[in-house]
Fold Glutathione S-transferase.
Amino acid sequence: MGFYRLIGNPGCGSAIVEAAFALSGLPYQTEMLEIWQPGPERERLFQLNPLGQVPVMILPDGSIMTESGAMVLHIIDRAPGAGLAPSPDDPARPAFLRWLVFLVASIYPTFTYGDVPARYVNEKEGQAELRAVTEAECQRYWRLVETGIAGPWMLGETRSALDLYVWVMSHWRPGRQWFRDYCPKLSRIADAVDGDPRLAPVKAANWPS
């Protein structure tokens, strides 16, 4: 089997896919690009993904995949024994799909539009408002997740790729301390994933101490 190549940037959504790869056993290589400053690396990213977003995954046959949720589902298909998702006939599968789509379709956009509001609004006042609105929505959505799960993992007693999303996204705003204060179940998930020794290289590459 050929190698997968994952194009990413430290601390970004590529860390989710990198973590899934680390648990899957599939052969992969990670390439970190400078995506925030003009230059050849950013130009290469736009050649791979016209949206200029990471992650980008280059499959062994050379084809290109974007969107972290799609990548995670592909990894699950290629490594069904890795425990990244319930099997299609498992009663927990619908909940897995529901929360996966919720994370990428509802929570993820709060960062897309709120992290750099100047991309979408010219006026300073409007930028501040967009940032505040997306911050509030992000917190509201996480509270919905918190009340919707029983723990200790997103799907109850079984860990899945959903918990990798929680681990990575809890590093983003509103930040790990906010999760400890307001979403303790999600905070415990993030801490538990953080302690997996198989993810130590991913942690070192994305959040070096």
